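Shift notes (night). Ran Rne/Rng family ribonuclease while the centrifuge was going.
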Amino acid sequence: MKGRVVVIGQHQGREAAALIVDGVLQDLLVDAGDTAPFAPGAILRGTVDRQMKGQGGVFLRLPDGAKGFLRETGGLRPGQAVLVQVSGHAEPGKALPVTTRLMFKGRLAIVTPFAPGQNISRRIKDAEGRERLAALAGAGMEGSPFGLVIRSAAGAADDDDIAADIAQMRGLAEAILDDADGAPELLLDPPGPHDQALSDWMEPAPDDVAQGEDALARHGVEEMIDALLSPSAALPGGGHMAIEPTRALIAVDVNTGNDTSPAASLKANIAAARDLPRQLRLRGLGGQVTVDFAPMPKRDRAALEQQLRAAFRGEANETSLAGWTPLGNYELQRKRDRLPLRQILGG
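Came back to this:
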């Protein structure tokens, strides 16, 4: 299967969407349902509970008895109502991470109430096109102190569609900021997998958009999901890596398989480094990740680390590459922007 295909359908009765490029699953969205109280992107009204000295933040009371943790503490007092946006998923037993830096994300534009200025995606290179989009941004945000980001998909969109998207996001932001006082409440749910796929995966334009109740099955996505529920991920050349979440961290073990040649370890390690971002993304894994690469000479570490940095460079998710430990493992930290796939599906 060649080309870029967006598949929108159902998996185990849940809304789901998959992005397949040249037959390889690159991204996967599955509705978490009741698995998580609030998904990243949700905007909530919370109440300041208490400040945590030494942790640089405050706890919030959120809707439905949930707890939030906010690092921005300036000017906050106990009992004060505050608007926040969920910024990630919580570790088990911990409060939900939230931020006051709200973003109202449309398909073509993002309104940022607390980050003024108008910006156009750097992926739009055409000078004339950027000029056109700047004029639309200026007109759409006239008289507003809010900031605006024009997304890359706007480069191929009609003026009317862009203007409508800006107006919708601006209106939504204004309405929610006018509703800042009161008891904890959910004010805005983030888009589900279908809407998110149609918003985030349309640039560059896909070769096909497949929709329907059985669309995932028709395109082999069901089998791809089944493979992700196994800890083992095959690597080119016969090697594999085992990806196993523990309570403290994500453990990754790279093996060469049956290849015992002198170059086998470096080949398997490079293959694992290149595929690791995709595997973590598809499996919904974040937090501390420790990789036990196949044994290799220390002189090869620099080349392998270069491959890791190149692989993670294009990731939208925040990732910090910490480096090698004294025992020869490699550590990195990845933001928890999704729930683990196995947790959602009960695998």
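The longest helix spans residues 264-283. The longest strand covers residues 43-52.
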